[in-house]
């Protein structure tokens, strides 16, 4: 009789261990390829790229990025306001219309896009008052 340990594992355990190893291998591969990173609005180039990806041809002339770098509000030469927010590992954006509203809480600007699916975004900005006025002015133009 040979010396050794006889392992008689149920097939479910072997399947579980094999699946776990495959998942860990895929997670390592995604990390090694730098897939699924977080978007960052940390430079003018990144802001312009994100704006163009959200709305084709959008060229911001003024912008303000949230202190976390995960959201921003910007204006183009035509006066259109674009609101960007993090959505998973991408950035989603909407041109704000007359239904958009803004209000200032003690340390944040809260913008309701007026679209139920996009929702509202909270931004910590140094120039929150100016952006709140610009957003709220969108609604007054539609009533004129």
Apparent shape: elongated
What's the number of helices?
Answer: 3
Distance between the termini: 97 Å
Series of secondary-structure elements, N-terminal to C-terminal = HHEEEEEEEH
Percent helix range: 25-40%
Q: Which spans have pLDDT < 50 for at least 5 consecutive residues?
A: none
Radius of gyration: 24 Å
Q: Order of strands across the widest beta sheet?
A: 1-2-3-4
Mean pLDDT: 87
The major β-sheet equals: 4 strands, antiparallel
Quantity of strands, as a count = 7
Strand proportion: 25-35%
Structural class of the helices, strands and pairings? alpha+beta
Walkthrough of the structure:
With 144 residues, this protein is α+β, with helices and mostly antiparallel strands. The protein contains three helices and seven strands, in the order H-H-E-E-E-E-E-E-E-H. The strands form two sheets. It has a four-stranded antiparallel sheet with strand order 1-2-3-4, with helices on both faces. Strand 6 and strand 7 form a beta hairpin. The longest helix has 22 residues. The radius of gyration is 24 Å and the shape is elongated. The N and C termini lie far apart (97 Å). The model has no long low-confidence stretch (mean pLDDT 87).
What labels describe this entry?
alpha+beta, 144 residues, 3-stranded antiparallel β-sheet, 26% strand, 4-stranded antiparallel β-sheet
């Amino acid at each position: 009789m040979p010396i050794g340990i006889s392992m008689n594992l149920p097939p479910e355990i072997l399947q579980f261990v094999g699946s776990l190893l495959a998942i860990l291998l895929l997670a390592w591969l995604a990390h090694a390829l730098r897939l699924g990173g977080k978007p960052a609005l940390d430079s003018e180039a990144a802001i312009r790229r994100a704006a163009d990806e959200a709305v084709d041809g959008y060229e911001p002339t003024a912008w303000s990025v949230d202190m976390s770098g995960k959201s921003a509000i910007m204006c183009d030469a035509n006066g259109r306001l674009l609101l960007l927010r993090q959505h998973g590992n991408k950035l989603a954006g909407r041109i704000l219309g007359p239904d958009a509203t803004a209000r200032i809480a003690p340390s944040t600007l809260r913008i309701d896009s007026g679209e139920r699916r996009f929702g509202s975004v909270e931004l910590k900005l140094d120039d929150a008052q100016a952006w709140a006025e610009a957003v709220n002015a969108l609604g007054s133009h539609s009533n004129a």
